[in-house]
Amino acid sequence: MAVEIERRPIMVERTEVRRYGASARVNHWITAATFTLLALSGLALFHPSLFFLTDLFGGGANTRAFHPWLGVVLIASFAILFVRFWSHNLWNRDDTQWTKQIGDVVKGEEEKLPELGKYNAGQKMVFWGTALLIVVLFATGLVIWDEYFHGLVSIGTNRLAALVHSLAAIAAILLIIVHVYAGIWVKGSIRGMTEGRVTGGWAWRHHRKWLRQEAKGETHD
Amino acid sequence: MASYQSLDIKRRSASTSTPPAVRSTGLEVAKLIDVSKCIGCKACQSACLEWNNLREEVGVNTGVYDNPHDLTANSWTLMRFSEWDNPDTGNFEWLIRKDGCMHCADPGCLKACPSPGAIVQYTNGIVDFVSENCIGCAYCVKGCPFNIPRISQVDRKAYKCTLCSDRVAVGQGPACAKACPTAAIMFGTKDDMKEQADRRITDLKSRGFANAGLYDPAGVGGTHVMYVLHHLDKPEIYAGLPKDPQISPLVSAWKGTGKILALGALAFAAVGAFFHHTVVGPNRVSETDEENAADLAEEGARSGPTPETRTL
Predict the structure, then answer these.
(1) What distance in Å separates the CA atoms of residue A58 and residue A162, rounded to the nearest whole number?
(2) Which residue of B has its CA nearest to A148?
(3) Rg, Å, chain A Cα set
(4) Residue B17: how many CB atoms within 10 A of its CB?
(5) What are the tens digits of pLDDT across the range A51-77?
(6) pLDDT tens digits along B102-156
(7) Per-residue DSSP letters for A112-180?
(8) pLDDT value at position B20?
(9) Mutation site, A10, A17, A54, A64, interface B, largest B CB count within 10 A
(10) Which residue in A59, A115, A124, B270 is a FRET match for B123, CA 20 to 30 A apart?
(11) CB A45 to CB B251 under 8 A?
(12) Would residue A179 show up in a list of annotated catalytic residues for this protein?
């Protein structure tokens, strides 16, 4: 049937759940802004067709100079984020089940999935993937940060670092594309990070186990 | 170093367009360094500093003749002295190699450079750094198979031998070649230099250097600075001259077609996400979800501590 009927009750009860505190939100957006600037400045030097992006940073030499410092800010900011969130991102059996039902996930048929805690397996993979890649990017980035670290390792190591840095950067940007899209697709999510609160319905639909804990007044962040 | 010379450009770093080729003569130049004729006087080093208006810092003596101890952003050429006991003849040989940019036909620096037009290759074969476009990233250092470019700690730009492109552009030979008192450094067309090298090699062979030969490594497509070596079979004894230099596979992987694939993957992910939304539609919370949540919250409120916020 082409026409769907939706009956709306006159008054719907609304609940709100606190998801992120102010410091977590600030921490997240500093990380996000830094990552975006890093991606833009990095891509500018990645391919000639994107060199025009150096104009955003005041030219090629400035882009080259700013990029590593942004990396320092990112790893510092992400380190705090990591300490905040890592314990919520430990893998459990529900995550394995979620991963097996990835087909239902992308179709948005969440009623078929197990009840989930604060994060689903996709979010956890983004979390651990980003953490790992940022460490790799920082380590290889230091090696090729010629201004301060030239001559500390061989040119061969420099070449390897440059290659690994590019590959890790592409992987990280891919992960962030997934992360950003998930936020856009799953309506009501962005609010959690901009205002700190999600609706009870959002929590019921996507993170029911977490909602049950919150409703019982158990620990939360 | 120099700005664009009145020389035609064959290749330009980080550029997708092809430079105009209509004026190209195909005439390639080369510098021939006859190591067997070098007396180690360093006149070439002085001439290089003088012509290019460079000054090297006063260094310290560490017991070797190399001065300075390595190429620097100011010293674009350097005599490297090697002492070698020839096991076949029992003779002690003093091998003096004038190090500097080899002006590869396939330049690793140009391949690695991310800044459009910071490194150019002229149609005559000279590879030149155009400093105003240089961003100081040192990718050229990673690209070079001969470890030649140096980044200045003063202005953070890369420097190396220009093969005196400014002199060559007006019909002169490089300053080092002009200054060399034994004509161990020669300059001309690449073909003429190869002929000259042949004559020298024949001579060296007649004097017992059976392995004498021309160093013009094919791995980088040949070079526009070539050496006549008495021991072509062992180039490493000349202060580590690589036997088969080529652009590192790591650099090729880093700078190769993989880049396009990587950008394609990013584009695919972004476009894919857009169409996922188009096909599946937004993942919305239903009113039922909200009601269920409210029921759960009420239950919680009855049985224990209240959830943090609850609004009607």
Answers:
(1) 23
(2) B153
(3) 21
(4) 8
(5) 999 999 999 999 999 999 999 999 999
(6) 999 999 999 999 999 999 999 999 999 999 999 999 999 999 999 999 999 999 9
(7) GSPP--SS-HHHHHHHHHHHHHHHHHHHHHHHT-HHHHTTSS-HHHHHHHHHHHHHHHHHHHHHHHHHH
(8) 82
(9) A64
(10) A59
(11) no
(12) yes
Instruction: List, as ranges, residues 287-306 from B with C-beta within 8 Å of A.
Output: 287, 289-294, 296-297, 299-300, 303-306
Q: Cβ–Cβ of A61/B306 closer than 8 Å?
A: no
Bind-site residues of B for [4Fe-4S] cluster = 38, 41, 44, 48, 101, 104, 109, 113, 134, 137, 140, 144, 161, 164, 176, 180
| pLDDT value, residue B311 | 47
Residue (of B234, B165, B229) closest to B197 by Cα position: B229
What token pair was written down for B250?
A: 């790591």
Min Cα separation A82/chain B (Å): 25
Is the model's pLDDT at A6 over the cut of 80?
no
Q: Is B271 on the interface with A (CB under 8 A)?
A: no
Dihedral of alpha carbons A190, A194, A196, A200, sign: negative
| Residue B285 binned pLDDT confidence (cut-offs 50, 70, 90) | very high
Look at the alpha carbons of B82, B86, B92, B98 in this order and tell me if their dihedral is positive or negative.
Answer: negative
ipTM of the complex: 0.91
Q: Is B138 on the interface with A (CB under 8 A)?
A: yes
pLDDT tier at B293, thresholds 50, 70, 90 = very high
Measure the CA–CA gap between A186 and A199, rounded to whole angstroms: 13
Q: What whole-number distance in Å separates Cα of residue A213 and Cα of residue B142?
A: 54
Mean pLDDT value of segment A88-112: 95
By Cβ distance, the residue of B133, B250, B306 closest to A159 is B250
B189 in helix, strand or coil? strand
Q: How many CB pairs under 8 A join A and B?
A: 192
Q: A-contacting residues of B 12-31, CB under 8 Å? A: 14-16
- Rg of chain B over all Cα atoms, to the nearest angstrom: 30
Model confidence over B45-69: pLDDT tens digits?
999 999 999 999 998 998 999 999 9
d(CA A115, CA A168): 33
Q: In this structure, how many other beta carbons lie within 10 angstroms of the beta carbon of residue A167?
A: 18
Whole-model pTM?
Answer: 0.92
B63-92 tens-digit pLDDT:
999 999 999 999 999 999 999 999 999 999
